[in-house]
Amino acid sequence: MTEPEYKGKKILLVIAQEQFRDEECFVPKQIFEAAGARVTVAAEFTETAKGTLGGTIKPDLRISEARIADYDAIVISGGPGSRKFLWDNQYLRELVKKADSLKIVISAICVSPVVLARAGILKGKESTVFNSPDTVNELKEHGAVYKDRDVVVSGKVVTGRDPKSAEAFGKAVLKALKKA
User: Fold this and answer.
1) CA–CA separation, 94 vs 131, rounded Å?
2) Could you tell me the pLDDT band of residue 3, with boundaries at 50, 70 and 90?
3) N or C: which end of the chain has fewer CB within 10 A?
4) Alpha-carbon distance 50 to 101, whole Å?
5) Reduced to 3 states, what is the DSSP secondary structure of residue 59?
6) In 10 A of CB 124, how many CB atoms?
7) 36 and 45 in contact (C-beta within 8 Å)?
8) Cα 62 to Cα 44: distance, rounded to the nearest angstrom
9) Residue 163, Cβ neighbours under 10 Å: how many?
10) φ, ψ for residue 130 (rounded to 5)?
C-alpha cells in the first residue's frame, strides 16, 4: 500500500466560533484528511464551535496560540460568523501576514477572503469572495482584482466564493500545496 500523497503536510483550518459555514469547514477538512494531511482546527476559543447548519467541532487550539511556521497551509473557513470573529482578529491577520512572508499556502472561502484583503496580501492579486456589495468592495478597496468565479488561484493564494465551491476550493488548496 502506498503512502497518502499529502502525509506529513499540516494544515491550519481557522473557523469562526459561531456561525461558521458547515460545508466550508467540513468538506475541505474531509478532502485534506482523505489525502493524508493533518488538519488542526483553530478558533477564538477552544470551546465547541457551532456552524450555521447545526454542525459542531471542537477547536484544537486558539487562533492566538497558533504558530504559522508549524504549518504548510492556512485555510480560513467562511460563514456569517467570520464577520464578527475573524475579519478584525489581529492574531489571525498576523498569521496571514507571516504565512505570506514564509510563502505558505494561504486560502479563504466565502466572506473570509476579506481577512486576506485586510491583511494586505491580496493587493494586485486576482481573488474571489462571496458576491455581496460589502465583501466585493472590501477586496477592491484593498487592491485585489475581483473575479466572480467559484475558485481563484493566484500564486500561493487560493480563494473560494461560497458553500457550493467548497469541494473545488478544497481540491485547489491541495493542488497549491503540492506545488509548494
Assistant:
1) 26
2) low
3) N
4) 32
5) coil
6) 9
7) no
8) 5
9) 20
10) -55, 130
Around Cβ 84, how many Cβ atoms within 10 Å? 14
Yes or no: say if 127 and 113 are a contact pair by the CB < 8 Å rule.
yes
Nine cell digits for residue 58: 471542537
**Burial of residue 51, with CB atoms counted within 10 A of its CB: 0-12 exposed, 13-18 middle, 19 or more buried:** buried
Non-local CB neighbours of 24 within 8 Å, separated by 6+ positions: 77, 78, 79, 109, 110, 160, 163, 166, 169
Q: Hey, what's the torsion of the CAs at 164, 169, 170, 175, to 10 degrees?
A: 150
Q: Let me know the angle formed at the C-alpha of 18 by 169 and 127, rounded to the nearest 5 degrees.
A: 30
Structure confidence at residue 4 (pLDDT): 74
C-alpha to C-alpha distances, 140 to 1, 15, 29, 31, 59, nearest whole angstrom: 48, 24, 29, 30, 32
Q: What is the pTM of this model?
A: 0.97
- Judge contact between 147 and 128, C-beta under 8 A: yes
Q: How far apart are CA 155 and CA 10, in angstroms?
A: 19
- Quick one: DSSP state of residue 2? P
